[in-house]
Design brief:
The chain has a 5-stranded parallel sheet with strand order 3-2-1-4-5, sandwiched between helices. By secondary structure, it is an alpha/beta fold. The protein has helices at about 15-25, 55-75, 90-100, 125-135, and strands spanning about 1-10, 30-40, 85-90, 105-110, 140. It is globular. Helix 3 runs parallel beside helix 4. The longest helix has 20 residues, at about 55-75. Helix 1 links the parallel strand 1 (about 1-10) and strand 2. The chain has a single domain, classed as Rossmann fold, CATH 3.40.50.620. The protein has 4 helices and 5 strands; from the N terminus they run E-H-E-H-E-H-E-H-E. The protein binds adenosine-5'-diphosphate.
Length: about 140
């Protein structure tokens, strides 16, 4: 059993990521901490500059946070209050790795691919980087 599990979730991968979280719940210790992290890649954000009013960036982060909360409420057998929801802006693999360290996660649980479960010989791009560079154990769900 693991005490602190980080599950990176890309909300674009509907249908599959709830299954990934269920696997994490299977190995989470009683009273263990589950953290769901969605990384919003910088290029998906509105440019922070003169064209946009101040706060646009924060608003986008808040919106994704709401989506993440709705995902937990609608798709998972847990209360959003019982897990930590994080939304960060940056490069997905880098953020997943740095957050795993910062939060002292003892396991990362993630899907092998974002878009489908079709058999493929290699891992997805983010999964490849995380598995390759992580010093935290990674459980990859296929
Ligand atoms: P693909 O290359 O097929 O799109 P990825 O490697 O990007 O696959 O996705 C595999 C897993 O990586 C996802 O299930 C998720 O756990 C994680 N991941 C990918 N992108 C993000 C993101 N923006 N935020 C959080 N997790 C992500």
């Amino acid at each position: 059993m693991y005490k602190t599990i980080l599950v990176p979730v890309d909300l674009a991968e509907e249908g599959f990521c709830d299954e990934v979280v269920r696997h994490a719940l299977e190995v989470l210790a009683p009273k263990g901490k589950l953290i769901l992290l969605t990384v919003v890649a910088g290029y998906q954000m509105p440019l922070v500059g003169s064209y946009f009013p101040p706060g646009t960036f924060d608003k986008a982060i808040k919106e994704v946070h709401q989506q993440l909360k709705a995902f937990v409420e609608q798709k998972l057998p847990i209360d959003p209050e019982d897990c930590t929801l994080e939304v960060k802006e940056g490069k997905p693999a880098d953020l997943i790795l740095s957050e795993a360290k910062r939060l002292k996660a003892d396991l990362i649980v993630m899907a092998s691919h974002k878009r489908s479960r079709l058999e493929r010989s290699v891992l997805g791009s983010v999964a490849t980087k995380v598995v390759g560079r992580s010093t935290t154990p990674v459980l990859v769900i296929k």
